[in-house]
């Protein structure tokens, strides 16, 4: 159950937030080869963000997954998420920071229990 949480200082006036969420969800699902129903995306904004000493358009994100992350996959996810933010929110790729967290299933709760991931 991958989770992408994004925060931005870009105003959502005149922005179709549902379209952004949908694009991010499908992008992540396609990269991972998962159904979209497995992916969660949240988008918060506008919030106060200073990135590199300025308050120009910027975004910060965290991507959490269970036992699947690696440098190659992270690079692909970072590039594609940055592209969506640049295209739909005008956040320059150079003003987007993404933190990856690869965690164990027992550290995730779902349906009143914990996630158990079988080895592939």
What does the model show?
- This protein has helices spanning 17-32, 71-89, and strands at residues 3-8, 40-44, 59-66, 96-103, 109-110, 113-114.
- With 120 residues, it is α/β, with parallel strands linked by helices.
- It has one domain: 2-Layer Sandwich (Macrophage Migration Inhibitory Factor).
- The protein has a 4-stranded mixed sheet with strand order 2-1-3-4, covered by helices on one side. A two-stranded antiparallel sheet has the order 5-6.
- Strand 3 (59-66), helix 2 and strand 4 (96-103) form a beta-alpha-beta unit.
- The chain is globular, with a radius of gyration of 15 Å.
- 20% of the residues are buried.
- The model has no long low-confidence stretch (mean pLDDT 95).
- GO terms for molecular function: phenylpyruvate tautomerase activity.
- This is Macrophage migration inhibitory factor.
- Belongs to the MIF family.
- It comes from Trifolium pratense.
Order of helices and strands: EHEEHEEE
The CATH H-level superfamily is: Macrophage Migration Inhibitory Factor
- Enumerate the strands of the largest sheet in spatial order, edge to edge or round the barrel: 2-1-3-4
Question: pLDDT below 50 for ≥5 consecutive residues: which ranges?
Answer: none
Mean pLDDT across residues: 95
- The total count of strands amounts to 6
Pfam families: MIF
Family: Belongs to the MIF family.
GO molecular function: phenylpyruvate tautomerase activity
Protein name: Macrophage migration inhibitory factor
Helices and strands in order, then pairings?
Layout: E1 3-8, H1 17-32, E2 40-44, E3 59-66, H2 71-89, E4 96-103, E5 109-110, E6 113-114
Parallel strand pairs: 1-2, 3-4
Antiparallel strand pairs: 1-3, 5-6
